[in-house]
Design a protein that fits this description.
Layout (H helix, E strand, L loop, with lengths): L2 H35 L3 H25 L3 H24 L1
């Protein structure tokens, strides 16, 4: 594979995939925390948003530490899909 293409796929996977993954996890946490812990919805959204920055940082670091680019994309796309499905499940019940 061309080096430029490989680096482009890795950077786009880290930035876009990491963002999608962390945003889906923030949505899940913001939806689930009030139901699980009984905290106020506004506090759950704030806590989830703050933790989302940390999760995004960890996702970016992991994306460049991982050797296989396909695994980065698979984890981020699969993790985002699972988190969104769980968000819709928690929200509907």
């Amino acid at each position: 594979m061309n080096k430029v293409l490989a680096m482009s796929l890795r950077v786009s996977g880290a930035v876009l995939g990491g963002y999608a993954f962390s945003a889906a996890c923030v949505a899940l946490a913001a939806t689930a925390l009030p139901r699980i812990t009984g905290m106020a919805r506004s506090e759950a959204v704030l806590l989830s948003s703050l933790l989302g920055f940390l999760l995004y940082l960890v996702a970016l670091l992991w994306a460049f530490a991982e050797r296989a680019t396909w695994r980065v994309w698979a984890v981020f796309v699969g993790g985002a899909a699972v988190a969104l499905l769980l968000t819709f499940f928690v929200k509907s019940h």
